[in-house]
Specification:
The complex is a heterotrimer of chains A (494), B (478) and C (109). By secondary structure, chain A is α/β, with parallel strands linked by helices. Chain A has a domain of 303 residues: Alpha-Beta Complex (Amidase signature (AS) enzymes), CATH 3.90.1300.10. Helix content of chain A is 40%, strand content 13%. Chain A has an eleven-stranded mixed beta sheet, sandwiched between helices. Chain A is globular, with a radius of gyration of 21 Å. A nine-stranded mixed beta sheet of chain B has the order 3-7-8-11-1-12-13-14-15. In chain B, strands 6-5-16 form a three-stranded antiparallel beta sheet, with no helix packed on it. Chain B contains 15 helices and 17 strands. The termini of chain B are far apart. In chain C, a hairpin with a 2-residue loop joins strand 2 and strand 3. Chain C has three helices and three strands. Chain C has a domain of 36 residues. Chain C has 109 residues and is α+β, with helices and mostly antiparallel strands. Classes of the chains: A alpha/beta (494), B alpha+beta (478), C alpha+beta (109). At the A-C interface, helix 9, helix 10, helix 11, helix 12 and helix 13 of A face helix 1 and helix 2 of C. Strand 10 of chain B pairs antiparallel with strand 3 of chain C.
Amino acid sequence: MSALPAPNAAAWAEAVRRGDLDPLDGVRAALARARQLDPGLNALLHLDAEGAEDAARALRERLRRGEDPGPLAGVPLVVKNNIAVAGWKLTCGSRILGDFASTFTATVVERLRAAGAIPIAASNLDEFAMGASTENSAFGPARNPFRTDLVPGGSSGGSAVSVAAGYAPFALGSETGGSVRQPASFCGLFGLKPTYGCLSRYGLVAFASSLDQIGVFGRGARDLALAFDAAAGRDRADSTTLAEPVEPCVPQLGRGVDGMRVGLLANSFAAGVEDTTQQRVRAAAEALRAAGARLAETQFPYEEAVVPTYYLLNTAEASSNLARFDGIRYGLRAEDARQLRDLYLRSRDAGFGPEVKRRILLGTFSLSAGYYDQYFTAALKARTLVVRAYLDLFRKFDLLLGATTPTPAFRLGEKSDDPVAMYLCDIFTCSANLGGVPAVNVPAGLGADGLPRGVQLTGRHRGEAALLRAAAVLEQALGGCPPLPQAAARALAA
Amino acid sequence: MSAPAAVAWEPTIGLEVHVQLATRTKLFCRCAWRFGAQPNTLVCPVCLGHPGVLPVLNARAVEQGARAALSLGMTVNRESKFDRKNYFYPDLPKGYQISQFDEPLAQHGSIRLDDGTHVRIRRLHLEEDAGKAIHDRGDFGLVDFNRAGAPLAEIVSEPDLATPPQATEYLDRLKQTLRWAGVSDCDMEKGNLRVDINVSVAPAGRRATGTRCEVKNVNSFQSVARALEHEIGRQIAVLESGGTVRQETRTWDEAAGQTRVMRVKEEADDYRYFPDPDLPRLQLSAEWIEAQRAALPEPQAQRRRRYEQALGLSEYDARVLTAERETSAYFERLLAAGSAPKEAANWLVNDVLSWVPPGGGVDDQPIPPEYLAAVLQLRHDGRINRNGGRALLEARAGGDLRSPQELVSALGLETQSDAGALEQACRRAIAAQPKAADDVRAGKEKALGALLGFVMRETRGAADAGKTRAILLRLLQP
Amino acid sequence: MGARFDVRKVAQLACLGLTESEEERLRREFEAILEFVAKVQALPLEGVPASVHSVAPPLPWEADEPRPGLHTEQALAGAPDRIAEFFKVPPILAHAAAPRRPEEAETRE
């Protein structure tokens, strides 16, 4: 099996910058690996070989002219297919968009390109990012490279698989309630959900606008820091981006955690969280303590109500955000509709999958007359409680440590018939989206079952620098991204 | 047969007016917008509702909305927010309209009518316009999104109007005020101003109001009066025949001259308003609001009074000069250039405005204010007479772009102030008209006219009348 | 919590066509889902303000300067159906089930 020329994005960019790696060779290696492995994993919806090679040649020219090729020079990037790249089909994992191709590129992709990154492919996802397994894609499920009968997590499963299987050293996903951290945990990767408002949402197809945030998968804390520094900051096209300049993370990455106060979330040691995961969280706590952090156990309140709050909010916003898919201006249109109403009903019935319909219905219901206060307003108030809970915790702590998910990757189909069980996958992740704070999954090795485990660090509002410093400490202590087992790698390549 | 004592019915009328604000770009994207462009030429991914786009507020639209509110005596709120109004329609690209639901930009204003009625204005909020769906073609409809996203102010009155003429007067005042403030052209033919009517009737003298109907699709001020007459008559007829008025939305059928039911209350849409998560709360500083107030022109009535009282203009001139904001602005520029008010008003009203094409404004005629000011200066300096001034205006109107100063010499319009030449002409006049000369010597100053006329003919109008008169009187001193 | 989830009515409001079997399945699922989300109501929400965002800046705005948009052909490129420079749609039938909008005014050019 052809290996990639560098183990992570940071090393890849260094090799290109030093002239040790020709950008075109690098991109071709990535494309070759994707072509070889993806038939078994279904992580990608399309490759842009031509565009990627053109970008690599342009970068080569910049290097030849002695220009700075950027901190992510030549690094191949996989982009979740709910993020717009001009000229690429933008499917959102749905049938309803048909052959729609975006006329513009998302701000975050533009900024990573300006930093030297080269988008090579669009990745598979749960339809409109609604799901926790990538099974809700209209284009079939993606598979976990560690064991292909398991899900890679979701909704950014395709991006996670692309990085875990080595198509590219980093990838963009999107987060609404854990859609980067959970698949990062299932696939043994670093996965960052930034502070709400740090990364522009312009070009990210809206699922739940007040929670959505583009996130990054990488193979080390430095990968996340490089991508975050390049992408973050105010964007005039997104009125919810924060006005204050964002503090760069890369220069602080090596400063360690000496003296940091870390809250160890007791929620991770409750019934329903499997033993190995609990052990890894404790191991991570020990590692931080050993590096000089002060640990104390604490509890995140309202645990029972966090996921329900999250579902009421994300469905209400989604019901409105997805109203634009009506078969009039673009996308799928039902054949032979005799009148307009019929066209709407049939196009949307044919275009949306079951989970999307479920959420549109719940959201429409909770916003409707007579139920609005009981459901939607109650959820808006509950969000205030979550925001306050974080403010309280971050008066006492600089970081929070806990599990990312209660269990490792589950089997395909295991939770498909039980929406509520699937929703509970987000129990440890969605509170950070409700609170708007940054959080990261740090891989914590493989279990005896050969499956990756992860731990989660949560930082205070705009606290990415501290968050990634701690992630770098844990990377050293816990061994970083686990390699694919030989057997799995051989099976994939076959 | 004796009819039962007729019950007197009293209508209660409220108006909701949508006004397109005068801006270059749309409310939430930087697409230009204007009336009458080719279909789907003023569109972008944002106003077409493409996936992945986000709204970005137009600063000018907020300014114009605030100025509209302030010109109506309203309070502009320091905080307001944008909400989504959810419904499906082919001209609504996102499946929702961004509007303001429970925290509007401004509230509490009023308009006073001639009969003293105080019509309260409840609120003014900003919202985006829809595109245009044309579906009277039978088996299909066509959609143009040029207008989608254009900025609208919705201005809602309290139900303080009682008669159709009051309603038209209210609308007329509203239109005058908004045009004067420069916030909208208010051209109903271009859809700049659209009216929805709320009306109910109840027995006179009772404080209770009847069941309300809403009438939409009313496209001119005359139609508002007609639709109201019809709808009030309809409701009275229903009540007098012992029926009850249903709460419903009706549409005005201009051709048939009647209102028709569009839908009844039970079918009312559930718009599921909720705060737009793409748009944080709009916060306006007190300083910003005061700056908008300061940017408003002097109110129309106040300016009219000032023209009459301080500048001494005739009532007629003051009215003409304050009828339109542009005319008044033109006049103000003449004053700023130092022109004498009465003279300036005279020339503007009698000469310049005669070049305004039908349906146009002062800016559509060919004489710029700077040009007229220069002409007035030449007059003031005595270098040209009134005929010379007219000749200069005609030259400009005819497309001659030379300055008035150049034209005075080029066209030989300079008045003859050369005392020697003028005195010669006067002596010739006295010689030619001895009878008139004798009369003047005898004290009949009226006879001076004949001599003056002779001099004017001699000099082809270039003589300065005042100087000529002085010379003649000197020569004819008894 | 007294919520009556009328799948058909909500689907009409959301413009979602559903088959009979879908409707039946959703009716069952929503019993569990509504019970699940109702847990929010057990929180101590008395006197708590509603938050539309966790944290958001004051609304920024932009100068009223036009920027080029899409060419008509780009705008219509994805249209499932068109006539000349217009998007084409089926007729709107004026019966109760037809979609409605507040300004029915623009039916005439």
